[in-house]
Write a structure and sequence with these properties.
Chain lengths: 393, 256
């Protein structure tokens, strides 16, 4: 079985491009060009140079000594939190801005949940001198205020999304509507492995630098390229897709995907799509999504803005349906405690999204000899307020 | 055999079609609105199945969908309301909605219900041509339904011809690159586009939608095409005047 996208834009039964005709020319332009452009020598060089000199790659693969000791296993952290702008999101925005330039676009739009993708997009737009508009749910604007300020300082316009649950799903709707209204000069930089084909594959390829580095880094310290487990949190699933990418076809590497259970799977306030979702169509992709029996998309909930999304990318729907990935859900409380624990044990304050991935160690046993790589997708600066209020610090 | 849409389109004269969201402003307004539209000379109606995340719609239709869902509108409820509609309404009826609710109802079951009721066509903007041809065309056609495709000013001539080939009723011409409800009116770029497509001599007539709000925009849109569809402007009128505003609204667009 293949876990990569096929010619038609599908991962197993999931994917495709369920878009209104208004978006067809844009998406088709991308589909016809993304592989050609991104494999050009000049593109590869510019992309690699920027990842090295601007983003600060390769990011370290760090053996977490005290965390490993506590859970009696071998835990490595892939330090995407050390990327410029503080999360993995910038790997993708660098790739897409270079692509947008080559397609002759002079205006960029993006959606953002936690604000990390918005900041990463505003950053590359500043770098290239291109106009940038970021859509962000009204609730997220409140809970991720530092990132809103950063986007503004970088010269982006932040537009509040006021419909629905006023979070990531609604920001994505607004970005898509903007694209419909501005079809010729605008490129939409989607922030995760979601949306119509070719976005999921394109974003996964840009993020795949994560597992490419893990391979050689692990080889240096463990004498093998393959960990026993690779772990990542899944909102839309881009940091996970990047961390899994070069291991997808190696069944000896166990994949663990961690979703946000919110206040608990059965509370009605959750974002655990693999448990609560059914196959349907969201944002142009056939995938698993949370919905009513009547096919209305459900408002999700998570304390973490970046995981507060009612769907997952089609690659992850396929990993789930095929049994290739093990899916776990972590509550707000478990995540917050894991975030505090990592801060105290390792001196690293993680983003709350990432804290979900770290929380699996209190929920699941590993063997002492297991080598586990957790993708530390982002740092927690943006979440200080939430941490402080939650723990009364 | 011609279905009601094809029959209507083969007659002389221009088409005035109205879109409204089922379950809005009140849950039980669906059939009364349909009757009033027919009585006042509207030629065809698009009944909107409300969706939580209507990507191609502007604020007016978004808000009407949200209200309709709050009012309790569902696919099953709409089918129930329309059960006996053909006893009193004879103009062509098209259901317009997003694909996910159809998928959850079951595409075949959905088409069966449409056939039983006497629905003539479907507009599902996010069901793309390729998917339709690959998976759904036989089911639609077995139940006497035709899927109506959109084109925009950005659609290439080659693709317009492809869409023409797949169409069995009319081509829905989106007036400009926009979501529904833009109110800036039409200029020469719009007329040029209507003229350009009209000059392609397509198999299927074209009906223009998006941005038609009054007599002037209706006249511009229908100068080179078979008809026009009004959505947001009609819903705005319903907000202000309710069902009793329908006669005046229709006359304001197209005098008797
Ligand atoms: C640090 C961090 N991790 C994870 C995510 C979730 O996104 P994805 O699942 O695409 O990696 C986000 C999204 O904002 C994020 O900021």
């Amino acid at each position: 079985m293949s876990y990569h996208v096929n010619e038609q834009g599908y991962y197993g039964d999931f994917g495709g491009a369920y878009i209104p005709e208004m978006l067809y020319p844009n998406v088709e332009e991308l589909r016809q060009n993304y592989l050609k452009i991104t494999s050009e020598e000049s593109f590869r060089k510019e992309f690699d140079d920027l990842l090295r000199d601007y983003v600060g790659r390769p990011t370290p693969l760090y053996f977490a000594n005290r965390l490993s000791e506590k859970y009696k296993t071998r835990i490595y952290l892939k330090r995407e939190d050390l990327c410029h702008t503080g999360a993995h999101k910038v790997n993708n925005t660098i790739g897409q801005i270079l692509l947008a330039k080559r397609l002759g676009k002079n205006r960029i739009i993006a959606e953002t949940g936690a604000g990390q993708h918005g900041v990463a997009t505003a950053t590359v737009c500043a770098l290239m001198g291109i106009e940038c508009v970021v859509y962000m749910g009204e609730i997220d604007i409140e809970r991720q205020a530092p990132n809103v300020a950063r986007m503004k300082m970088l010269g982006a316009t932040v537009v509040p999304a006021t419909s629905g649950s006023k979070t990531l799903k609604d920001a994505t709707n607004e970005a898509i509507r903007d694209w419909i209204n501005n079809p010729t000069n605008t490129h939409y930089i989607i922030g995760s492995v979601v949306g119509p084909h070719p976005y999921p594959d394109m974003v996964a390829r840009f993020q795949s630098v994560i597992s490419r580095e893990i391979k050689w880094q692990l080889k240096q310290v463990e004498c093998r390229e393959e960990p026993d487990y690779i772990v990542a949190c899944v909102g839309g699933g881009s940091n996970a897709a990047g961390a899994y990418y070069h291991y997808l076809d190696q069944p000896e590497v166990n994949i663990i995907a961690v979703e946000a259970a919110g206040k608990g799977i059965d509370t009605g306030e959750s974002a655990a799509t693999s448990v609560l979702g059914k196959t349907g169509i969201i944002h142009g992709s056939k995938t698993l999504l949370m919905q009513t029996p009547d096919g209305q998309i459900t408002e999700p909930y998570s304390i973490s803005a970046g995981l507060d999304y009612p769907g997952v990318g089609p690659m992850h729907a396929h990993l789930y349906a095929s049994g290739r990935g093990e899916f776990m859900s972590i509550t707000d409380k478990q995540a917050m405690e894991a975030g505090l624990e990592l801060s105290k044990l390792e001196g690293i304050i993680p983003a709350i999204e990432t804290s979900h991935a770290l929380a699996i160690f209190s929920q699941r046993k590993f063997n002492p000899a297991d080598v586990i790589v957790v993708n530390l997708s982002g740092r927690g600066d943006k979440d200080l307020n939430t941490y402080i209020n939650y723990f009364d610090l | 055999m011609k279905n009601r849409i094809q029959q209507k389109l083969s007659e002389d004269g221009k088409i005035l079609s109205i879109y409204f969201t089922a379950g809005y402003p009140n849950i039980n307004d669906t059939v009364p609105i349909l009757r009033s539209l027919e009585e006042n000379g509207v030629d065809m109606v698009e009944i909107g199945l409300p969706f939580s995340d209507p990507l191609a719609d502007g604020p007016v239709i978004q808000a009407s969908s949200t209200t309709a869902l709050k009012n309790g509108m569902t696919t099953a409820k709409l089918f129930d309301q329309l059960k006996e509609v053909r006893k009193t309404v004879s103009i062509p009826l098209v259901l317009m909605g997003y694909f996910n609710p159809v998928l959850q109802y079951g595409v075949e079951a959905f088409c069966k219900q449409c056939e039983a009721i006497g629905i003539d066509g479907l507009i599902l903007p996010d069901l793309p041509l390729a998917e339709y041809n690959l998976h759904y065309r036989p089911v639609f056609e077995c139940h006497g339904l035709t899927n109506i495709f959109l084109i925009t000013p950005q659609t290439s001539e080659e693709r317009i011809r492809e869409i023409d080939k797949a169409s069995r009723a009319f081509i829905y011409m989106v007036s400009s690159a926009s979501t529904t409800g833009k109110t800036s009116g039409f200029g020469t770029e719009h007329s040029d586009y209507f003229k350009r497509v009209s000059a392609m001599n397509l198999e299927n007539p074209q009906v223009v939608g998006f941005g038609i709000k009054d007599r002037e925009t209706y006249n511009t849109a229908t100068q080179f095409t078979k008809g026009a569809i009004i959505g947001s402007a009609f819903i705005k009128m319903l907000n202000e005047s309710g069902i009793k505003g329908i006669p005046n609204f229709v006359r304001s667009i197209r005098p008797v």
